Each structure stands twice: as C-alpha cells, then as structure tokens.
C-alpha cells in the first residue's frame, strides 16, 4: 500500500463506513469546529471516565461533513483513542501533529497511528493538513472543556 498518496483505500473505507459516527450520550463536552478554508465541519462529543488525574476516553462520537480526508480522520482518530487514557493518547496526538506538519518529510508510525497512518500523505499538501487535523483539534478542545488534562498535545 502506498501511504504517500493522498487518497488510499483505507481513507475511502473510513469515509464510506465511518467508525463511531453519530452523536451519542452521555458526554461531558461537545465542540463544533469548522475549517474555513474548505468548509469541513465536525461536531464532536467526548465522554471521560475513571481516574480524574488520567481519565480514560470512554466514548467519542461525532457528526462530520466535508471531504473524505476529514471524515476518515474523525473515524480513525475516534477508533484509536476510545478506551485509552489521556496519557496513553498524548504521544499519539503529538506524533500525528508532528507528521502532519512535516510536509511529507516524516513517516507515520503505524504502531502509534493505526489506520490513521493512511492520512499522512496529506502532509505534503498544506491545505489538506487542516482537513486531517480538524477532528484531532476538536478532540483536544472537548477534553479540555470536559476538564481533562491533556498536556503538551498540539493536535
């Protein structure tokens, strides 16, 4: 599989059959993000549970409209983080941000990113980076709004 191209079979699969799509309850925070460059939008909800010092992401649900890259990013991101603590996802989020801002110079670590590694081809196209990172930024904002500590993660 060529992960350097913009659209891969994994991107198309997550776009056609998104995981965790549809807004669900319960949730502690809901955020809405828009990419003004292209019109992509996401409403994302997060449900945290467990240790208040390092809560686990119990659920991420979302409603996303826009390009295949942004919808596939929401699908892969939610599947990757559900069930993990904030400390566990911090290096994943940081790696995704670094790879997406590398302009194609850095490869994604499939062990960290799972199916989201299929999105790294977009890093060569600066206008597409926002499409991919929008759901990650929405998750970060929702976690902060829910009162969870997510230190250091830029994505």
UniProtKB/TrEMBL annotation:
Please name one Pfam family that this protein belongs to: NifU_N
Source taxon at top rank: Bacteria
Q: Which SUPFAM superfamilies match?
A: SufE/NifU
Q: Which InterPro entries does the UniProt entry name for this protein?
A: NIF_FeS_clus_asmbl_NifU_N
All copies of domain NIF system FeS cluster assembly NifU N-terminal, residue ranges: 7-131
- Fetch the PANTHER family from UniProt: IRON-SULFUR CLUSTER ASSEMBLY ENZYME NIFU HOMOLOG (PTHR10093)
Q: What is this protein called?
A: SUF system NifU family Fe-S cluster assembly protein
Which organism encodes this protein?
Brachybacterium kimchii
């Amino acid at each position: 599989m060529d992960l350097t191209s913009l659209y891969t079979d994994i991107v198309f699969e997550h776009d056609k059959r998104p995981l965790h799509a549809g807004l669900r309850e319960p949730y502690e925070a809901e955020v809405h993000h828009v990419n003004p460059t292209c019109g992509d939008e996401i409403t994302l909800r997060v449900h945290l549970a467990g240790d208040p010092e390092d809560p686990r992401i119990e659920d991420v649900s979302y409603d996303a409209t826009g390009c295949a890259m942004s919808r596939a990013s929401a699908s892969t991101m939610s599947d990757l983080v559900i069930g993990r603590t904030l400390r566990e996802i911090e290096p994943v989020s940081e790696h995704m941000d670094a790879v997406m801002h590398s302009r194609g110079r850095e490869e994604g670590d499939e062990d960290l990113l799972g199916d989201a590694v299929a999105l790294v081809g977009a890093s060569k196209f600066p206008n597409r980076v926002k499409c991919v990172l929008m759901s990650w930024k929405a998750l970060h904002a929702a976690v902060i709004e829910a009162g969870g500590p997510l230190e250091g993660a830029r994505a």
